[in-house]
Amino acid sequence: MTGGSTFARELRMCLEEMLDTLPPEPEYDALPFYRHWLAERNLGLVPIADAARFDWPGRWLARVRATDGDHAVVMFGSPSGPFLDPAGTFARGATIEEGWLLAPLDLARPTALPSAEAGSGSVVGIFVAPAAEAPMTHVLRATALPGRGLEGDRYAAGSGTFSGPGRGYELTLVEVEALDAVGLTGEEARRNVVTRGVALNALVGRRFRIGPVECVGRRLAEPCAHLERLVRPGLLRPLVHRAGLRADILSGGTIELGAAVAAAADD
Length: 267
Hints:
This protein is an alpha+beta fold. The chain is built from six helices and 16 strands. It has helices spanning 6-19, 30-39, 176-182, 186-189, 225-230, 236-239, and strands at 43-47, 56-66, 69-77, 81-84, 95-104, 120-128, 137-138, 141-145, 149-150, 171-175, 193-196, 207-210, 213-220, 245-249, 253-256, 260-263. Strands 6-11-10-14-13-12-16 form a seven-stranded mixed barrel. It has a five-stranded antiparallel β-sheet with strand order 1-5-2-3-4, with helices on one face.
């Protein structure tokens, strides 16, 4: 299911119906692309265990199989029927193969992009690792490579745990204030850039600068079981919504300790 497939085009139409806004065309495989795009808006696609038997008094997404391949449909109701079927697949005997509910990632946070001020801060730590799960190394400066990551880091080399097509995998940042609150070092946090004084959550969906390097905040870098396995149990809960920011690098340059971090002036 690539970005230019029939399923991808119909999935875009279905998301437009559900969100009342037209999503961008997918830049890579449609499902992971729209998962990333939705996460930037505090939304996620929750898999439905038995989609063919699912009913819901609201709208949900389905991948259906017809004689000419896969299609996307918006379902609705209990029992559910097609609410938006762009290709008319149900009239041709389509069967439901997968389904997803569209749901907020954080019920207390709005799905619109944040309006809070990020303020300004500085870089207090820079870390890279040569490969997935390898120890993080503290460096005084690092070269930011647009579209890749930090030179010497596993994501710039395409060897990170989550490497692959996607938005927000080039650079990660975290506030030292959040690390201090849970007793984590910069190495243990496994983020590339540790900051002080800037509200990173407010940079989701915004352009910002780290010294001369321009970046764009994609979504929160939420904690997961992978971090707990590498560091220690019990980190997930206190770091929810405080574990940093996933970003992409728009223009290259050198990031150094002490560099200013702030939203771009023209954002």
